Amino acid sequence: MKESFDLIKKFKLEVKDKKEKFKKKIFKIIIDRINENFLDSINIEYYGNKVPINNISTIVKINAITVLIKPWEKKYLNIIYKTLLKEDRGFLIINDGKMIKLKISKLTEETRKKLIKKVKFFLEKKKIEIRNLRNEVNKKLKKFSYLEEDFLKKKKNEIQNITDQYLEKVNFIFKQKEKEILTI
Asked: What is the pTM of this model?
């Protein structure tokens, strides 16, 4: 019986973690202004280690929509540039050979729709991950053959309620981001 409680507790923690990762991922998508920590999650290969861009360069916020990045070692300029291109966060990225200029371009209706599509893709992916996690836990729960049928059913309902609760939470996060994207 204790195993079933531990299993559900672990499930709840994993689902919460998936929700938090989803939230972090979609809130990295910047719409109208650059916040101070937007580059923290972008890592660069630096002497065999992955480090945030701000650990190997000077970052200067010019205004609400423009940032300059000047690597301390020139050889990292192109590496940072290519990494930012790969990240595809909707910036205008200019490499002048000495520094990189990031600028948020004004969103058109078309780019807003693309961003919503991208966020919706992340949402669906996260929903699938949560449901797969639920299915795995239900399979593990079935292995406890010594549990009574009523108790097993009760635990499955509890797992489904947790799943529904977190699916609702990721939908709410999506709706917030969608509203942010659509707000002009």
From this structure: 0.69
